[in-house]
């Protein structure tokens, strides 16, 4: 058997030097005259161990990481091709605690094989959901997705099945499935990882959505900051077309479905569904008022399902294993699993898929291992730039849509940014306003102008000018933005601002007055 | 310095891109990406050609081009360095990284060095949030920026 060496081609691994490692390994193989196959897999998501190189041995996979180019020679010397010990030896990848503790449903295949091998995809259970779906009536597919309890993973948490039902029930000679892959929230990379590491699961999920709702055309709108995801998705669509997964006859059924990959142009607000639709249509990415809902009048005025990548990528397993299987995981009204992305100043950063219900403290301290700097955790921002900052005092909050809402926060796209005790929460609150000002589409006055006034008011606070008055002004401004903006950009910017003020009031107190020089 | 093509050349090359892509559903963004890839920016002279090809007003095309951060009105430097300035990178000191790079290159964000070697831009998230602070140099991703990597980047863009 020719040895197989797996070296991730995922952006995160590339950012940590995977390409150099791959080149060094290839060179070493050539110099030593060893015949081996290098497979570029996706990432399993344990970024603190990337680049994580795996070898297939007689006793299963053995992982080594984080591997530096300078480790390669000694890896060969110690016989890593047969899984021998080395200072970078990690053992079987699925036994690495960070990975072993996860419940991988959506990410079951991510990072294991060549993402563009449809055979590898099928070998690990791929396409089973779609095979079931093509034999079902559309309404039954919609029912199964509804019963699974799947809710929009982009952040809004709207039940996916109900959205699909609206599109199914709306008459239209043409309907669309739009995948929102404009993953702009800081701390989130789940969409990127799945598009780079298991693109067929997204294609399968979108195709099922098409069959369920009568839509025949899909678009994946990927942000331009993700060139690798764009490339992988484009190639995967080609492969799926050739294999008859996409096309006029999906898996030989009478259902037709095809899709295109589209690229954004650096506007954060296009992650909001109605501005994304405008952008796809070739317009300015300005938010639309709802109603009409996109499900009724969406892309080009046609009935449109618009779902996040992870929502769509979670559909195949629901159609494969059943609604009850998926629904069995989770808590309360948050069913199934959620890929939590642990990011920022954290020791064990990466993607951790788990059933809903873990507490924030378990995620940050036990799984994340505390800060990378070794200093105490001061705050964590949950849900990206529009999410609230949580202090340690709220670390008992369980990961659940409703539980976070009850604490004036949101889980959003499930990204968590950890900050150590050097963080200045006034600065973070200011940044939230500044970011809103940079990215506002301009439609709603409270967002367009309020954000700029917010920056100025926080600057006055920082300068110690009339602190009480200005603090009250910020609160009032946040209230106006929250209730006076059409979308979450203006409406949720108050979350990071007000949570900083509420939980970290000491950072907003005026600096001790300097002793006046005589 | 990047040579600016003559306006007739812009017109003809733009017309070819418009012709190739105009039958897509919602063709404007793919066309603008195509033009930026062709010229390195979206030249002013390209706008009437696009407007004509898609039956839009020039104002509409101008409105779309200027809405999106990606589309440039002028050519960038030979290298484009994007530094992530979003929260996850902030938590790992992206402010200090940006300050150091600005000082080493002698330019601020949205500026190009006088020799045209590099344009520096902020970016709000590259999806490398577990490898912060991160950057993108000419489309190549770089994570866990430290002094050594910063110096490598600066040396590369200056060479």
UniProtKB/TrEMBL annotation, chain A:
A single MF term (Gene Ontology): FMN binding
Keyword check for Cytoplasm: no
CDD domains found in the cross-reference section: TRX_Fd_FDH_beta
Ranges of residues in domain NADH-ubiquinone oxidoreductase 51kDa subunit iron-sulphur binding: 426-471
PROSITE patterns, A to Z: COMPLEX1_51K_1, COMPLEX1_51K_2
Superkingdom in the source lineage: Bacteria
Matching Gene3D superfamilies: 3.10.20.600, 6.10.250.1450, Glutaredoxin (3.40.30.10), NADH-ubiquinone oxidoreductase 51kDa subunit (3.40.50.11540), NADH-ubiquinone oxidoreductase 51kDa subunit, iron-sulphur binding domain (1.20.1440.230)
InterPro entries with a match to the protein in the record: NADH-UbQ_OxRdtase_51kDa_CS, Nuo51_FMN-bd, Nuo51_FMN-bd_sf, Nuop51_4Fe4S-bd, Nuop51_4Fe4S-bd_sf, Thioredoxin-like_sf
Keywords (A to Z) from UniProt: 4Fe-4S, Iron, Iron-sulfur, Metal-binding
Coiled coil: none
Keyword Metal-binding: yes
Cofactor(s), names only, from the UniProt record: FMN; [4Fe-4S] cluster
Role summary: NDH-1 shuttles electrons from NADH, via FMN and iron-sulfur (Fe-S) centers, to quinones in the respiratory chain. The immediate electron acceptor for the enzyme in this species is believed to be ubiquinone. Couples the redox reaction to proton translocation (for every two electrons transferred, four hydrogen ions are translocated across the cytoplasmic membrane), and thus conserves the redox energy in a proton gradient.
The family this protein is said to belong to: Belongs to the complex I 51 kDa subunit family.
Protein name: NADH-quinone oxidoreductase subunit NuoF
Biological source species: Mesorhizobium waimense
High-level lineage: Bacteria, Pseudomonadati, Pseudomonadota, Alphaproteobacteria, Hyphomicrobiales
From TrEMBL, chain B:
Cofactor: how and how many bound: Binds 1 [2Fe-2S] cluster.
Coiled coil regions, renumbered to chain: none
SUPFAM superfamilies, sorted: Thioredoxin-like (SSF52833)
Keyword field: 2Fe-2S, Iron, Iron-sulfur, Metal-binding
Cofactor(s), by name: [2Fe-2S] cluster
Gene3D superfamilies per the UniProt record, alphabetical: Glutaredoxin, NADH-quinone oxidoreductase subunit E
Pfam families (UniProt xref): 2Fe-2S_thioredx
UniProt-listed InterPro entries: NADP_DH_HndA-like (IPR028431), NuoE-like (IPR002023), NuoE_N (IPR041921), Thioredoxin-like_sf (IPR036249)
Family: Belongs to the complex I 24 kDa subunit family.
Protein name: Formate dehydrogenase subunit gamma
Source species: Mesorhizobium waimense
